[in-house]
Give the backbone structure.
Amino acid sequence: MALHLFNTLTRQLDLFDPADPERVGVYACGPTVYGHAHVGNFRAFVFYDLVHRYLEWKGYGVRFVMNLTDVDDKTIRAAFEQGQTLEEYTAPFAEAVLRESDALGIRRMDLYPRATAYVDRMIELVSTLLDRGLAYRTSDGSVFYDISAFPNYGCLSGKDLDQARTGERVAADEYGKDDVRDFALWKAAKPEDRAVGAVWDAPWGEGRPGWHLECSAMGLAEIGDTLDLHLGGEDLIFPHHEGEIAQSEGATGKPFARFWLHVKHLRVEGSKMSKSTGNFIRVKELLDEGFTGAAIRHQLLSVQYRSDLNFTRDGLAASARALRRLLDFDDRLRDHPVGEDVPETALPQLARRASRDFEAAMDQDLNVSGALGAVFVFLKEVNALLDRNERLRMEELDAARRVLQSIDDVLGLIETGRRESGIDEEERASIEAMVAEREAARASRDWARADEIRDDLASRGIVLEDGPEGTRWKRLAGG
RNA sequence: GGCGCCGUGGCCAAGUGGUAAGGCAGAGGACUGCAAAUCCUUUAUCCCCGGUUCGAAUCCGGGCGGCGCCUCCA
């Protein structure tokens, strides 16, 4: 089987066939750290994580880079209003992104470059573009990309630039460019820029980089002239990625990325998420409400990345339930008794089929819904098999455990859910003492006392399960 | 106006030519001291109309409905 991905460049499913499987370079557009990231941002980040994990699962050697944009109009304006430097203002938001990423089980990427650390590279890039006649300077010391000199402009978004509506939002042209469609590579320094320390020296004058430039510079610097994969939100197709292509290819003469993948925006409780209407949710709020990072991860992951996803608290509750089942299943598989002289079962075949179906779905443009379907079929079949067999061969159980583990290496659901059910030793001892007391009460048929203890534990979020092997307890994660 | 996506059971959702995965919720049953967990059973002909085909949720045309992007929002 082979991985096929929907390439925005070709608008079809293409075979993913990197030049060097040992060194696959992936660049993902990260957040602009001018405020707290919201769940919409995290749909993108969880998607990036899925790509990251799946490529490694498929055996590729991956270098994965996600930038943090810490210099642009919004960060400068906000820092200025707060009377802080750019660095002071953006640092907390950058930290929050990583902290909340951790909570959602997003594995750390190889590098999180900050735009401000790559301004030298950006200046080099602009120089090259000026030398090549693809850019021009204006009287105030700004530099613009000359769209008309790059025939491929529009190839990613499929836009016919001649037909683009002009003049609608262009009134805010503060730098005096030749053509409204030309975009800024370099913006001449203004007082606010100086106030927050967002000013760099360039041969054509002091200023700061334009929006698209950072990604070209960091991608070229950290991965190379041609990326294997470039990821981003659907809104970035135009103009951001179009600009990146123009800048990078204009400078190197080589294709900037073989594959472009774009994740669709999510909606919240039925409507578009937008900061202007206050209709956006932060991950931190959800965690404070008692939803777990794993449940949030599940909901963001459960729908394929190019499909509509309506993020709701009801959906989150459903995700929490599904996750609970997955965790229970993992427990059960771990704890199931082993026997020496027990008959063979179909467990290994079920495991092989689950793995195969999982991979087939994921290979088809990362179809997580289909992949989860395979997981739950496996879960149901194996639960039934465990019901029928009190003891199983060690090697069969191991085969099943390996497959579940392997699948979760990609999905990261059990992994994230586990991490959140941590209980310290003191609490553990206290719980186990109460469970033992209840066992004694049950042995003497003192149901009232037994139920009292169970209710007591339930109020602490501990659920009991009486089985033939004794009583087990677990923490019921929120959600 | 330009480009594009989507419409499957109560909710979410897979399936892109051969008679509908899976999750959540609901109902009945088994198990249990009662529960919990688990298992079994149970709920759809795929927005509408027309066409292509031996056969369509799946292809084509039309209609209705929802949504996204179109200069700095992942």
